[in-house]
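Dear Dr. H.,

I hope your travels went smoothly. While you were away I took the liberty of generating a structure for the chain from your last submission, since the lab meeting agenda had it listed for discussion. I wanted you to have the full record in hand beforehand rather than looking at slides cold. The sequence, exactly as received, is reproduced here:
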Amino acid sequence: MHFHDLEQQLAGPMAAAAATAYSAHLLEQLSAGMLDVPVVRHPLGFVCLPVVRDGELGVCLHFFGHGTDTEPGVEPHHAHSWDLISHVLYGRVAHEPMDVTGSGEPTHRIYEVLSKADGTDEVNPTDTLVHGEPHPPQVCTAGETYRLPAGLFHASRSDGPAATLVLGRSRPGGRDLSLGPVDAGPRGRITTRRHCAEADTPRLARTALRSLHDR
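The corresponding predicted structure, in token form, is as follows:
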């Protein structure tokens, strides 16, 4: 299914059925070894299956709570350079927005995240100090879709196994950012998006399929 068709279906009354059918097909292919796509453990604490990379457009499946945790020392609040549409396939996902302003006592420094093709991310401190005010979490359950514009600081968490179908559209000139400690060292840090072990991939796909069909 083309990105634009999927985007349109997620905005309609049959969003849950379309997202489930599309995701189940991918997971069936993955469990059978017919989908040659690297499955990646993200430092923010989820497993990512990147399905589409087409210029400014992207489609992924994200899996929370399947033996993944946020990497120690990684600040969960971040802002994408792309507009995001996320449909919850099963489980519960809490979206935690944060207001960031240049006034008030600084609570965070903004860091720029530069992703490289080898799976490493350079997280470099900028000169910008900000005051962050977290909002109450917005919890989305299976069948619900939420949208986040590029540049909005937020964190996504789950209190158990959950999966989302994610569509992204990059904005020209956008930057991937994260919040971090005010007192930055002279250098940034490196985080790594590690590939899942080959044996773990079909196991994850089968577990996700069961959860998808049981919801």
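Two observations you may find useful: The first strand starts at residue 40 and ends at 42. Helices lie at 3-10, 15-31, 200-214.

With kind regards,
E. W.
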